[in-house]
Amino acid sequence: MNAFADDNTNRAQWGERIRIFIRGKEQYLLALLLFFAATTAGVVLHHSDKYSLYYFGDAASHIIKAREFTDSQPHEIPIVGTVWLPLPHFLLLPFASIDNLFFSGIAGSFIGIPCLVGTGVLLFLILRSITGSVPVAFLMASLYGLNPNVVYISLTPMDEPTLIFFVALAGYALYRWLTTESALWLFSCAAAVMLATLCRYEAWLLAPLVLFTGTLKALPQWRESQRGKAIGTVAIAIISFAGIALWLSWHAIAFGNPFKFTMGTYSVLSTVYRGSEEHLPFNILVTFSRAIFIIFGPALLIIATAAFVPLRRRDAHRKTILLLVFFILPMLFTLAAAFAGYIGVDEWWWNWRYVLTFGLFLAVAGGTGLLEIVNRMPAAWGRSIVVGALLATPLVQLATPSIGVVVYKDAAKCIDATVRDAITVGEHLPGVCKSGSIGFIIDENYIIRIEIASGLPLKRFRIIHFSAGQKIPDSTLRSEQYLVVQKNQPLASQLPASSSPGGNTALLENFRLRFESTCFALLERKPATGSIDHPTSDSNPSYR
User: Fold this and answer.
1) Where are the alpha helices (DSSP H) in 156-308?
2) What whole-number distance in Å separates Cα of residue 317 and Cα of residue 173?
3) Which residues are CB-neighbours of 106 under 8 A, at least 6 positions away?
Protein backbone atom coordinates (compact mmCIF):
# COMPACT_ATOMS: atom_id res chain seq x y z
CA MET A 1 0.00 0.00 0.00
CA ASN A 2 2.82 2.37 0.85
CA ALA A 3 4.44 1.69 -2.53
CA PHE A 4 1.25 2.66 -4.37
CA ALA A 5 0.92 5.75 -2.21
CA ASP A 6 4.49 6.74 -2.97
CA ASP A 7 3.88 6.28 -6.72
CA ASN A 8 0.78 8.46 -6.59
CA THR A 9 2.65 11.10 -4.62
CA ASN A 10 5.50 11.11 -7.14
CA ARG A 11 3.07 11.43 -10.05
CA ALA A 12 1.31 14.32 -8.34
CA GLN A 13 4.62 16.04 -7.69
CA TRP A 14 5.74 15.62 -11.28
CA GLY A 15 2.38 16.86 -12.54
CA GLU A 16 2.65 19.93 -10.34
CA ARG A 17 6.18 20.62 -11.56
CA ILE A 18 5.04 20.41 -15.17
CA ARG A 19 2.13 22.78 -14.50
CA ILE A 20 4.49 25.24 -12.79
CA PHE A 21 6.92 25.03 -15.72
CA ILE A 22 4.18 25.56 -18.32
CA ARG A 23 2.38 28.33 -16.45
CA GLY A 24 2.84 31.63 -18.30
CA LYS A 25 4.46 29.94 -21.30
CA GLU A 26 1.33 28.64 -23.01
CA GLN A 27 1.59 30.97 -26.00
CA TYR A 28 5.14 29.78 -26.68
CA LEU A 29 4.10 26.14 -26.49
CA LEU A 30 1.23 26.92 -28.87
CA ALA A 31 3.65 28.57 -31.29
CA LEU A 32 5.92 25.51 -31.22
CA LEU A 33 2.96 23.18 -31.72
CA LEU A 34 1.66 25.05 -34.76
CA PHE A 35 5.15 25.46 -36.24
CA PHE A 36 5.89 21.76 -35.86
CA ALA A 37 2.53 20.71 -37.31
CA ALA A 38 2.84 23.04 -40.32
CA THR A 39 6.45 22.13 -41.13
CA THR A 40 5.69 18.43 -40.80
CA ALA A 41 2.72 18.79 -43.17
CA GLY A 42 4.90 20.72 -45.61
CA VAL A 43 7.59 18.04 -45.61
CA VAL A 44 5.04 15.27 -46.15
CA LEU A 45 3.27 17.10 -48.99
CA HIS A 46 6.48 18.11 -50.75
CA HIS A 47 7.80 14.55 -50.47
CA SER A 48 4.59 13.16 -51.98
CA ASP A 49 4.63 15.66 -54.88
CA LYS A 50 7.19 18.41 -55.29
CA TYR A 51 4.55 20.59 -56.93
CA SER A 52 1.95 20.12 -54.17
CA LEU A 53 2.52 23.63 -52.79
CA TYR A 54 1.83 25.00 -56.28
CA TYR A 55 -1.41 23.11 -56.91
CA PHE A 56 -3.45 26.29 -56.86
CA GLY A 57 -3.04 28.13 -60.14
CA ASP A 58 -3.10 31.38 -58.19
CA ALA A 59 -0.30 30.10 -55.94
CA ALA A 60 1.98 29.69 -58.94
CA SER A 61 0.90 33.05 -60.34
CA HIS A 62 1.51 34.85 -57.04
CA ILE A 63 5.04 33.51 -56.70
CA ILE A 64 5.78 34.31 -60.36
CA LYS A 65 4.56 37.87 -59.79
CA ALA A 66 6.87 38.24 -56.79
CA ARG A 67 9.82 36.76 -58.69
CA GLU A 68 9.35 39.12 -61.63
CA PHE A 69 10.64 42.04 -59.55
CA THR A 70 14.14 40.51 -59.60
CA ASP A 71 14.00 38.11 -62.54
CA SER A 72 12.30 39.35 -65.70
CA GLN A 73 13.11 40.45 -69.21
CA PRO A 74 15.40 43.52 -69.21
CA HIS A 75 12.91 45.60 -71.21
CA GLU A 76 9.95 44.63 -69.03
CA ILE A 77 8.92 46.54 -65.90
CA PRO A 78 6.97 44.50 -63.34
CA ILE A 79 3.51 46.01 -62.99
CA VAL A 80 1.75 46.30 -59.65
CA GLY A 81 -1.96 45.71 -60.25
CA THR A 82 -4.48 45.64 -61.62
CA VAL A 83 -6.31 42.88 -59.77
CA TRP A 84 -4.06 41.44 -57.10
CA LEU A 85 -3.29 43.57 -54.10
CA PRO A 86 0.48 44.02 -53.74
CA LEU A 87 1.51 43.34 -50.14
CA PRO A 88 1.67 39.50 -50.33
CA HIS A 89 3.93 39.78 -53.39
CA PHE A 90 6.28 42.21 -51.64
CA LEU A 91 6.44 39.94 -48.60
CA LEU A 92 7.21 36.96 -50.85
CA LEU A 93 9.88 38.86 -52.80
CA PRO A 94 13.00 38.09 -50.69
CA PHE A 95 12.16 34.39 -50.53
CA ALA A 96 11.01 34.08 -54.15
CA SER A 97 14.35 35.56 -55.21
CA ILE A 98 16.14 32.43 -53.90
CA ASP A 99 16.08 29.72 -56.56
CA ASN A 100 15.68 26.72 -54.27
CA LEU A 101 12.78 28.32 -52.40
CA PHE A 102 11.13 29.61 -55.55
CA PHE A 103 11.16 26.47 -57.70
CA SER A 104 10.19 24.20 -54.80
CA GLY A 105 7.30 26.39 -53.66
CA ILE A 106 8.73 26.58 -50.16
CA ALA A 107 9.04 30.35 -50.50
CA GLY A 108 5.34 30.64 -49.70
CA SER A 109 5.79 28.64 -46.50
CA PHE A 110 8.34 31.17 -45.25
CA ILE A 111 5.48 33.67 -45.11
CA GLY A 112 2.51 31.39 -44.48
CA ILE A 113 3.86 29.43 -41.51
CA PRO A 114 4.80 32.54 -39.47
CA CYS A 115 1.36 33.94 -40.31
CA LEU A 116 -0.27 30.72 -39.11
CA VAL A 117 1.73 30.73 -35.88
CA GLY A 118 1.08 34.43 -35.33
CA THR A 119 -2.64 34.04 -35.93
CA GLY A 120 -2.83 31.17 -33.44
CA VAL A 121 -0.98 33.12 -30.76
CA LEU A 122 -3.16 36.19 -31.32
CA LEU A 123 -6.32 34.10 -30.98
CA PHE A 124 -4.94 32.65 -27.75
CA LEU A 125 -4.27 36.13 -26.35
CA ILE A 126 -7.72 37.36 -27.40
CA LEU A 127 -9.54 34.40 -25.89
CA ARG A 128 -7.49 34.49 -22.71
CA SER A 129 -8.48 38.13 -22.26
CA ILE A 130 -12.16 37.50 -23.02
CA THR A 131 -12.69 34.24 -21.14
CA GLY A 132 -10.00 34.43 -18.47
CA SER A 133 -9.41 30.71 -19.11
CA VAL A 134 -6.03 29.59 -20.38
CA PRO A 135 -7.19 26.03 -21.25
CA VAL A 136 -10.13 27.31 -23.28
CA ALA A 137 -7.94 29.84 -25.09
CA PHE A 138 -5.28 27.22 -25.83
CA LEU A 139 -7.83 24.68 -27.06
CA MET A 140 -9.65 27.02 -29.44
CA ALA A 141 -6.46 28.59 -30.82
CA SER A 142 -5.02 25.11 -31.38
CA LEU A 143 -8.22 23.95 -33.04
CA TYR A 144 -8.03 26.78 -35.56
CA GLY A 145 -4.29 26.52 -36.20
CA LEU A 146 -4.35 22.73 -36.60
CA ASN A 147 -7.28 22.72 -39.01
CA PRO A 148 -5.83 20.88 -42.04
CA ASN A 149 -7.44 23.35 -44.44
CA VAL A 150 -5.80 26.28 -42.67
CA VAL A 151 -2.47 24.44 -42.50
CA TYR A 152 -2.44 23.66 -46.23
CA ILE A 153 -3.26 27.20 -47.33
CA SER A 154 -0.48 28.45 -45.01
CA LEU A 155 2.10 26.34 -46.83
CA THR A 156 1.32 27.88 -50.23
CA PRO A 157 2.12 31.30 -51.74
CA MET A 158 -1.56 32.26 -51.55
CA ASP A 159 -2.54 35.60 -50.00
CA GLU A 160 -5.09 34.27 -47.49
CA PRO A 161 -2.50 33.59 -44.72
CA THR A 162 -1.31 37.21 -44.68
CA LEU A 163 -4.88 38.51 -44.75
CA ILE A 164 -5.94 36.30 -41.83
CA PHE A 165 -2.88 37.26 -39.78
CA PHE A 166 -3.36 41.01 -40.20
CA VAL A 167 -7.09 40.71 -39.49
CA ALA A 168 -6.30 38.76 -36.31
CA LEU A 169 -3.69 41.35 -35.35
CA ALA A 170 -6.15 44.18 -35.96
CA GLY A 171 -8.82 42.37 -33.92
CA TYR A 172 -6.44 41.86 -31.00
CA ALA A 173 -5.38 45.51 -31.08
CA LEU A 174 -9.04 46.59 -31.32
CA TYR A 175 -9.95 44.60 -28.23
CA ARG A 176 -6.96 45.97 -26.31
CA TRP A 177 -7.95 49.50 -27.29
CA LEU A 178 -11.53 48.93 -26.16
CA THR A 179 -10.30 47.72 -22.76
CA THR A 180 -7.45 50.21 -22.21
CA GLU A 181 -8.43 53.19 -24.46
CA SER A 182 -4.73 53.55 -25.29
CA ALA A 183 -4.11 55.49 -28.51
CA LEU A 184 -1.19 53.16 -29.23
CA TRP A 185 -3.54 50.19 -29.53
CA LEU A 186 -5.90 52.15 -31.79
CA PHE A 187 -2.93 53.02 -34.01
CA SER A 188 -1.89 49.35 -34.06
CA CYS A 189 -5.42 48.37 -35.07
CA ALA A 190 -5.61 50.96 -37.84
CA ALA A 191 -2.15 50.05 -39.15
CA ALA A 192 -3.01 46.33 -39.20
CA VAL A 193 -6.27 47.04 -41.06
CA MET A 194 -4.35 49.17 -43.55
CA LEU A 195 -1.98 46.25 -44.20
CA ALA A 196 -4.89 43.80 -44.44
CA THR A 197 -6.57 45.98 -47.09
CA LEU A 198 -3.41 45.63 -49.17
CA CYS A 199 -3.64 41.81 -49.00
CA ARG A 200 -7.20 41.02 -50.06
CA TYR A 201 -10.36 42.98 -50.73
CA GLU A 202 -12.27 41.18 -47.97
CA ALA A 203 -10.55 43.46 -45.47
CA TRP A 204 -11.95 46.64 -47.01
CA LEU A 205 -15.06 46.52 -44.81
CA LEU A 206 -12.90 46.68 -41.69
CA ALA A 207 -11.73 50.25 -42.27
CA PRO A 208 -15.23 51.79 -42.00
CA LEU A 209 -15.85 49.87 -38.78
CA VAL A 210 -12.62 51.14 -37.23
CA LEU A 211 -13.48 54.71 -38.22
CA PHE A 212 -17.04 54.33 -36.92
CA THR A 213 -15.82 52.93 -33.59
CA GLY A 214 -13.17 55.64 -33.29
CA THR A 215 -15.76 58.33 -33.98
CA LEU A 216 -18.07 56.93 -31.28
CA LYS A 217 -15.20 57.10 -28.82
CA ALA A 218 -14.30 60.62 -29.93
CA LEU A 219 -17.80 62.10 -29.44
CA PRO A 220 -17.75 62.00 -25.60
CA GLN A 221 -14.21 63.41 -25.68
CA TRP A 222 -15.43 66.31 -27.82
CA ARG A 223 -18.36 66.98 -25.51
CA GLU A 224 -16.00 66.98 -22.54
CA SER A 225 -13.90 69.68 -24.22
CA GLN A 226 -11.07 67.23 -24.96
CA ARG A 227 -11.15 68.30 -28.59
CA GLY A 228 -7.49 67.62 -29.30
CA LYS A 229 -7.86 64.08 -28.03
CA ALA A 230 -11.07 63.59 -30.03
CA ILE A 231 -9.46 64.83 -33.25
CA GLY A 232 -6.46 62.60 -32.60
CA THR A 233 -8.69 59.55 -32.13
CA VAL A 234 -10.48 60.13 -35.43
CA ALA A 235 -7.21 60.91 -37.21
CA ILE A 236 -5.66 57.65 -36.04
CA ALA A 237 -8.76 55.70 -37.09
CA ILE A 238 -8.56 57.22 -40.58
CA ILE A 239 -5.17 55.54 -41.03
CA SER A 240 -7.09 52.32 -41.64
CA PHE A 241 -8.18 53.77 -45.02
CA ALA A 242 -4.60 54.49 -46.13
CA GLY A 243 -4.18 51.17 -47.96
CA ILE A 244 -7.43 51.61 -49.88
CA ALA A 245 -6.54 55.20 -50.77
CA LEU A 246 -3.08 54.12 -51.93
CA TRP A 247 -4.51 51.38 -54.14
CA LEU A 248 -7.10 53.66 -55.73
CA SER A 249 -4.53 56.41 -56.27
CA TRP A 250 -2.07 53.99 -57.87
CA HIS A 251 -4.70 52.78 -60.33
CA ALA A 252 -5.71 56.34 -61.15
CA ILE A 253 -2.08 57.25 -61.90
CA ALA A 254 -0.91 54.04 -63.59
CA PHE A 255 -4.05 53.01 -65.46
CA GLY A 256 -6.11 56.19 -65.62
CA ASN A 257 -8.99 54.62 -63.69
CA PRO A 258 -9.03 54.24 -59.88
CA PHE A 259 -11.42 51.28 -60.22
CA LYS A 260 -9.53 49.44 -62.94
CA PHE A 261 -9.17 46.43 -60.64
CA THR A 262 -12.93 45.81 -60.81
CA MET A 263 -12.77 45.20 -64.56
CA GLY A 264 -11.44 42.45 -66.76
CA THR A 265 -10.06 39.43 -64.96
CA TYR A 266 -11.45 40.51 -61.60
CA SER A 267 -14.93 39.83 -62.91
CA VAL A 268 -14.09 36.14 -63.10
CA LEU A 269 -17.60 34.83 -63.56
CA SER A 270 -19.14 34.54 -66.98
CA THR A 271 -22.53 36.00 -67.79
CA VAL A 272 -23.75 32.43 -68.22
CA TYR A 273 -22.86 31.61 -64.62
CA ARG A 274 -24.37 34.86 -63.34
CA GLY A 275 -27.66 33.90 -64.94
CA SER A 276 -27.64 30.28 -63.81
CA GLU A 277 -29.51 28.76 -60.92
CA GLU A 278 -26.19 28.10 -59.18
CA HIS A 279 -25.80 31.83 -58.74
CA LEU A 280 -29.16 32.35 -57.05
CA PRO A 281 -28.73 33.92 -53.57
CA PHE A 282 -30.28 30.93 -51.80
CA ASN A 283 -27.93 28.50 -53.55
CA ILE A 284 -24.93 30.67 -52.71
CA LEU A 285 -25.92 30.69 -49.04
CA VAL A 286 -26.39 26.92 -49.05
CA THR A 287 -22.98 26.41 -50.65
CA PHE A 288 -21.22 28.73 -48.20
CA SER A 289 -22.99 27.05 -45.29
CA ARG A 290 -21.91 23.64 -46.52
CA ALA A 291 -18.33 24.86 -46.89
CA ILE A 292 -18.28 26.22 -43.34
CA PHE A 293 -19.86 23.05 -41.98
CA ILE A 294 -17.29 20.74 -43.60
CA ILE A 295 -14.21 22.92 -43.03
CA PHE A 296 -14.84 23.76 -39.36
CA GLY A 297 -17.04 20.89 -38.25
CA PRO A 298 -20.43 20.67 -36.54
CA ALA A 299 -19.04 20.60 -32.98
CA LEU A 300 -17.44 24.04 -33.28
CA LEU A 301 -20.53 25.48 -34.94
CA ILE A 302 -22.78 24.23 -32.15
CA ILE A 303 -20.49 25.48 -29.41
CA ALA A 304 -20.11 28.87 -31.11
CA THR A 305 -23.86 29.45 -30.83
CA ALA A 306 -23.53 29.35 -27.03
CA ALA A 307 -21.47 32.54 -27.24
CA PHE A 308 -24.64 34.53 -27.72
CA VAL A 309 -26.05 33.56 -24.34
CA PRO A 310 -26.12 36.84 -22.37
CA LEU A 311 -23.02 37.33 -20.27
CA ARG A 312 -23.10 38.67 -16.76
CA ARG A 313 -20.77 41.57 -17.51
CA ARG A 314 -22.60 43.73 -20.00
CA ASP A 315 -19.58 45.90 -20.78
CA ALA A 316 -17.48 42.85 -21.60
CA HIS A 317 -20.37 41.53 -23.65
CA ARG A 318 -20.47 44.66 -25.84
CA LYS A 319 -16.73 44.50 -26.45
CA THR A 320 -16.91 40.85 -27.41
CA ILE A 321 -19.84 41.45 -29.75
CA LEU A 322 -17.95 44.27 -31.47
CA LEU A 323 -14.95 41.99 -31.92
CA LEU A 324 -17.18 39.28 -33.38
CA VAL A 325 -18.68 41.79 -35.81
CA PHE A 326 -15.15 42.82 -36.77
CA PHE A 327 -14.16 39.23 -37.51
CA ILE A 328 -17.29 38.41 -39.51
CA LEU A 329 -17.04 41.38 -41.89
CA PRO A 330 -14.54 39.73 -44.32
CA MET A 331 -16.97 36.85 -44.73
CA LEU A 332 -19.86 39.26 -45.37
CA PHE A 333 -17.75 40.97 -48.03
CA THR A 334 -17.16 37.60 -49.70
CA LEU A 335 -20.88 36.87 -49.68
CA ALA A 336 -21.66 40.26 -51.20
CA ALA A 337 -19.02 39.67 -53.90
CA ALA A 338 -20.56 36.26 -54.66
CA PHE A 339 -24.03 37.78 -54.95
CA ALA A 340 -22.65 40.45 -57.28
CA GLY A 341 -20.99 37.83 -59.49
CA TYR A 342 -17.35 38.71 -58.84
CA ILE A 343 -16.32 35.37 -57.33
CA GLY A 344 -17.43 31.80 -57.77
CA VAL A 345 -17.91 29.23 -55.02
CA ASP A 346 -19.65 26.05 -56.11
CA GLU A 347 -20.80 22.85 -54.44
CA TRP A 348 -17.72 20.93 -55.59
CA TRP A 349 -15.24 22.76 -53.36
CA TRP A 350 -14.40 25.44 -55.87
CA ASN A 351 -12.85 28.36 -53.93
CA TRP A 352 -14.07 27.12 -50.56
CA ARG A 353 -10.88 28.73 -49.18
CA TYR A 354 -12.82 32.00 -49.16
CA VAL A 355 -14.54 30.94 -45.93
CA LEU A 356 -11.28 30.49 -43.98
CA THR A 357 -11.48 34.02 -42.56
CA PHE A 358 -14.73 32.96 -40.87
CA GLY A 359 -12.58 30.76 -38.66
CA LEU A 360 -11.52 33.81 -36.64
CA PHE A 361 -15.14 34.54 -35.81
CA LEU A 362 -15.79 30.90 -34.93
CA ALA A 363 -12.69 30.66 -32.74
CA VAL A 364 -13.71 33.65 -30.61
CA ALA A 365 -17.40 32.70 -30.53
CA GLY A 366 -16.49 29.08 -29.84
CA GLY A 367 -14.19 30.06 -26.99
CA THR A 368 -16.79 32.14 -25.23
CA GLY A 369 -19.44 29.53 -25.93
CA LEU A 370 -17.24 26.72 -24.63
CA LEU A 371 -16.69 28.62 -21.38
CA GLU A 372 -20.44 28.98 -20.95
CA ILE A 373 -20.95 25.26 -21.56
CA VAL A 374 -18.14 24.20 -19.21
CA ASN A 375 -19.43 26.47 -16.43
CA ARG A 376 -22.89 24.91 -16.72
CA MET A 377 -21.59 21.32 -16.96
CA PRO A 378 -20.29 20.13 -13.58
CA ALA A 379 -19.55 16.56 -14.66
CA ALA A 380 -15.98 16.01 -15.82
CA TRP A 381 -17.04 13.33 -18.29
CA GLY A 382 -19.40 15.76 -20.00
CA ARG A 383 -16.62 18.33 -20.46
CA SER A 384 -14.36 15.58 -21.83
CA ILE A 385 -16.96 14.66 -24.44
CA VAL A 386 -17.23 18.28 -25.59
CA VAL A 387 -13.45 18.69 -25.86
CA GLY A 388 -13.12 15.33 -27.59
CA ALA A 389 -15.74 16.28 -30.17
CA LEU A 390 -13.83 19.45 -30.95
CA LEU A 391 -10.48 17.71 -31.28
CA ALA A 392 -11.98 14.98 -33.47
CA THR A 393 -12.76 17.41 -36.30
CA PRO A 394 -9.26 17.62 -37.86
CA LEU A 395 -8.77 13.89 -37.38
CA VAL A 396 -12.01 13.13 -39.23
CA GLN A 397 -10.98 15.45 -42.06
CA LEU A 398 -7.65 13.68 -42.45
CA ALA A 399 -9.02 10.15 -42.09
CA THR A 400 -12.29 10.30 -44.04
CA PRO A 401 -11.82 10.50 -47.83
CA SER A 402 -15.46 11.46 -48.43
CA ILE A 403 -14.88 14.62 -46.35
CA GLY A 404 -11.16 15.19 -46.58
CA VAL A 405 -9.24 18.44 -46.61
CA VAL A 406 -11.46 20.29 -49.05
CA VAL A 407 -9.10 23.23 -49.63
CA TYR A 408 -6.40 20.76 -50.65
CA LYS A 409 -8.92 18.92 -52.86
CA ASP A 410 -9.84 22.20 -54.51
CA ALA A 411 -6.18 22.93 -55.21
CA ALA A 412 -5.52 19.42 -56.53
CA LYS A 413 -8.32 19.83 -59.08
CA CYS A 414 -6.20 22.50 -60.78
CA ILE A 415 -3.66 19.84 -61.77
CA ASP A 416 -5.41 18.20 -64.69
CA ALA A 417 -3.85 16.19 -67.52
CA THR A 418 -2.95 19.27 -69.56
CA VAL A 419 -1.25 20.94 -66.59
CA ARG A 420 0.75 17.77 -65.94
CA ASP A 421 1.69 17.78 -69.61
CA ALA A 422 2.87 21.38 -69.32
CA ILE A 423 4.95 20.43 -66.27
CA THR A 424 6.55 17.63 -68.32
CA VAL A 425 7.52 20.14 -71.00
CA GLY A 426 9.02 22.43 -68.37
CA GLU A 427 11.09 19.61 -66.94
CA HIS A 428 12.55 18.91 -70.42
CA LEU A 429 13.56 22.51 -71.11
CA PRO A 430 16.89 22.57 -69.21
CA GLY A 431 18.21 19.61 -71.21
CA VAL A 432 17.30 21.20 -74.53
CA CYS A 433 17.39 24.98 -74.15
CA LYS A 434 21.03 25.68 -73.40
CA SER A 435 20.97 29.36 -74.37
CA GLY A 436 18.76 31.98 -75.95
CA SER A 437 15.22 33.10 -75.27
CA ILE A 438 12.17 30.86 -75.06
CA GLY A 439 8.88 32.10 -76.48
CA PHE A 440 5.43 30.85 -75.56
CA ILE A 441 2.50 30.53 -77.95
CA ILE A 442 0.22 28.85 -75.44
CA ASP A 443 -2.47 29.66 -72.92
CA GLU A 444 -1.07 31.71 -70.04
CA ASN A 445 -2.48 29.26 -67.49
CA TYR A 446 0.13 26.74 -68.61
CA ILE A 447 3.02 29.18 -68.97
CA ILE A 448 3.46 29.55 -65.22
CA ARG A 449 3.55 25.76 -64.82
CA ILE A 450 6.28 25.42 -67.45
CA GLU A 451 8.32 28.28 -66.00
CA ILE A 452 8.33 26.81 -62.50
CA ALA A 453 8.97 23.23 -63.62
CA SER A 454 11.88 24.29 -65.85
CA GLY A 455 14.14 25.63 -63.10
CA LEU A 456 15.34 28.28 -65.58
CA PRO A 457 15.51 32.05 -64.91
CA LEU A 458 12.31 33.85 -65.83
CA LYS A 459 14.29 36.37 -67.87
CA ARG A 460 14.79 33.68 -70.51
CA PHE A 461 11.07 33.40 -71.17
CA ARG A 462 9.07 35.65 -73.45
CA ILE A 463 5.28 35.51 -73.53
CA ILE A 464 3.79 36.18 -76.96
CA HIS A 465 0.35 37.65 -76.43
CA PHE A 466 -2.15 36.95 -79.18
CA SER A 467 -5.85 36.52 -79.80
CA ALA A 468 -7.76 34.43 -82.28
CA GLY A 469 -7.54 36.94 -85.11
CA GLN A 470 -3.94 38.03 -84.59
CA LYS A 471 -0.81 36.81 -86.32
CA ILE A 472 2.48 35.81 -84.75
CA PRO A 473 4.80 38.83 -85.14
CA ASP A 474 7.54 38.40 -87.74
CA SER A 475 10.03 39.49 -85.06
CA THR A 476 9.11 36.42 -83.02
CA LEU A 477 9.88 34.11 -85.91
CA ARG A 478 13.24 35.80 -86.34
CA SER A 479 14.38 36.33 -82.74
CA GLU A 480 13.27 33.50 -80.46
CA GLN A 481 15.68 30.59 -80.09
CA TYR A 482 12.93 28.27 -78.88
CA LEU A 483 9.15 28.24 -79.04
CA VAL A 484 6.67 26.29 -76.96
CA VAL A 485 3.49 25.78 -78.98
CA GLN A 486 0.14 24.49 -77.75
CA LYS A 487 -0.85 21.95 -80.38
CA ASN A 488 -4.61 22.22 -80.06
CA GLN A 489 -4.67 25.92 -80.94
CA PRO A 490 -5.44 27.05 -84.52
CA LEU A 491 -1.90 27.97 -85.54
CA ALA A 492 -2.96 28.78 -89.07
CA SER A 493 -4.83 31.84 -87.84
CA GLN A 494 -1.78 32.96 -85.89
CA LEU A 495 0.80 32.78 -88.67
CA PRO A 496 1.97 35.85 -90.62
CA ALA A 497 -0.16 36.87 -93.54
CA SER A 498 2.56 35.75 -95.97
CA SER A 499 2.13 32.13 -94.85
CA SER A 500 0.04 29.78 -96.89
CA PRO A 501 -3.48 29.40 -95.49
CA GLY A 502 -4.02 26.35 -93.33
CA GLY A 503 -0.32 25.50 -92.98
CA ASN A 504 2.55 26.11 -90.58
CA THR A 505 4.99 27.17 -93.28
CA ALA A 506 6.57 30.04 -91.36
CA LEU A 507 7.16 27.93 -88.27
CA LEU A 508 8.56 25.01 -90.25
CA GLU A 509 10.87 27.27 -92.24
CA ASN A 510 12.44 28.65 -89.06
CA PHE A 511 12.10 25.92 -86.43
CA ARG A 512 12.47 22.19 -85.95
CA LEU A 513 10.80 19.96 -83.39
CA ARG A 514 12.91 19.05 -80.34
CA PHE A 515 10.36 17.62 -77.97
CA GLU A 516 6.70 16.77 -78.19
CA SER A 517 4.13 15.85 -75.55
CA THR A 518 0.42 15.22 -75.81
CA CYS A 519 -0.56 18.89 -75.82
CA PHE A 520 2.63 20.86 -76.47
CA ALA A 521 5.54 21.01 -78.87
CA LEU A 522 8.99 22.47 -78.17
CA LEU A 523 10.55 23.99 -81.30
CA GLU A 524 14.18 25.04 -81.77
CA ARG A 525 15.41 27.59 -84.29
CA LYS A 526 17.12 25.98 -87.26
CA PRO A 527 20.79 26.82 -87.84
CA ALA A 528 21.44 29.70 -90.19
CA THR A 529 21.72 28.95 -93.91
CA GLY A 530 25.10 27.49 -94.78
CA SER A 531 25.70 25.82 -91.41
CA ILE A 532 25.57 22.10 -90.91
CA ASP A 533 22.15 20.96 -89.78
CA HIS A 534 22.54 17.53 -88.25
CA PRO A 535 19.54 15.36 -88.96
CA THR A 536 17.23 14.66 -86.08
CA SER A 537 14.51 12.12 -85.47
CA ASP A 538 11.91 14.80 -85.02
CA SER A 539 10.95 15.53 -88.58
CA ASN A 540 7.32 15.58 -89.62
CA PRO A 541 6.03 16.94 -86.29
CA SER A 542 2.54 15.80 -85.45
CA TYR A 543 1.35 19.25 -84.40
CA ARG A 544 1.03 20.19 -88.04
Assistant:
1) 160-180, 183-197, 206-223, 227-238, 242-255, 271-274, 281-296, 298-305
2) 17
3) 42, 46, 53, 95, 100
DSSP for 343-361, please give it: S--BTTTBTGGGGTTHHHH
The pLDDT of residue 78 is: 66
Cα–Cα separations (whole angstroms), residue 459 to 107, 113, 352, 448: 19, 29, 34, 13
pLDDT digits (tens, 9 = 90+) for 102-150: 999 899 999 999 999 999 999 999 999 999 999 999 999 999 999 999 9
Q: How many residues does the chain have?
A: 544
Q: Is the dihedral of CA 416, 421, 422, 423 positive or negative?
A: positive
Q: Helical H runs in 462-537?
A: 474-479, 505-510
Rounded to 10 deg, the angle between the 358-375 and 134-145 helix axes is: 150
| Angle value at C-alpha 90, between 354 and 241, nearest 5 degrees | 65
The DSSP letter of residue 56 is S
Q: Of 341, 203, 202, give the one whose Cα is nearest residue 266.
A: 341
End-to-end CA distance of the chain: 90
Cα separation, 460 vs 322, whole angstroms? 52
For 214, residues 6+ apart whose C-beta sits below 8 A from its C-beta are: 186, 233, 234, 236, 237
Question: By 3-state DSSP, what share of the chain in percent is helix, strand and coil, each rounded to 5?
Answer: 70, 5, 25
Residues 481-500 have pLDDT tens digits of 888 888 766 543 343 333 33
Q: So what's the pLDDT on residue 271?
A: 44
pLDDT tens per residue, range 13-25: 665 655 665 666 7
Domain residues of the chain, as ranges? Answer: 19-69+82-411, 417-525
What is the percent of the chain where pLDDT is above 70?
81
The H-assigned helical ranges of 49-105 are 57-67, 87-96, 99-104
Tell me the CB-side half-sphere exposure of residue 380, using CA atoms within 13 A: 0
In whole angstroms, give the CA distance from residue 390 to residue 166.
26
- Angle of CA points 273, 275, 281, to nearest 5°: 90
> Would you say 112 and 155 are in contact if contact means Cβ atoms under 8 Å apart?
yes
CB 212 within 8 A of CB 257: no
Neighbours of 50 (CB within 10 A): 14
Q: Cis before residue 40, ω within 30 degrees of 0?
A: no
